[in-house]
Design a protein that fits this description.
- The protein is mostly beta strands and 145 residues long.
- Helix content is 13%, strand content 46%.
- The chain has one helix and ten strands, in the order H-E-E-E-E-E-E-E-E-E-E.
Length: 145
């Protein structure tokens, strides 16, 4: 009898653990915003069909990070996903700087971008380059405003 309960417990524990780790197909898709630094990410790591409207010569991409109201961006050139975390390769749109980063889903609407190696993300801000911190929080929005 103990074996039956143990086997049942082991089966349920394995099943529920596997179920909890399955990522849905919208986790890494959409519009993420950081209001503090006025930057956003447009991503679709599944279909990799994001087109930068002012840089359409790059074609379809996994996504990009840009400053609101600007025409400068960091392009996501390669991505690999595992569970709630994605490994990103990024390059600025001049091609002069690159970096690796992770994007982690904290909960349904909060994400954390952590720069790992390479250049520091800089964006234009009032005629100067603004360095962004190595860790940024983003909130997922339904659509871009």
């Amino acid at each position: 009898m103990k074996r039956i309960f143990f086997s049942l417990f082991l089966f349920l524990a394995t099943f529920l653990t596997g179920y909890a780790q399955v990522a849905d197909s919208t986790m890494f898709k959409g519009y993420l915003q950081n209001k503090e630094y006025n930057v956003y990410m447009q991503i679709n790591f599944y279909d990799q069909d994001v087109v930068i409207s002012w840089e359409d010569m790059y074609g379809s991409l996994p996504g990009f990070l840009a400053k609101e109201g600007g025409n400068f961006c960091w392009i996501i050139t390669d991505v690999s996903m595992e569970g709630r975390q994605a490994q990103l390769e990024m390059v600025n749109d001049y091609g002069s700087e690159d970096l690796t980063a992770t994007l982690t889903q904290v909960n349904d609407s909060t994400y954390t971008l952590r720069q790992r190696t390479g250049s520091t993300i800089k964006v234009p801000n009032n005629g100067k380059w603004q360095k962004l911190p190595s860790t940024l929080s983003f909130t997922k929005r339904k659509t871009k405003k």
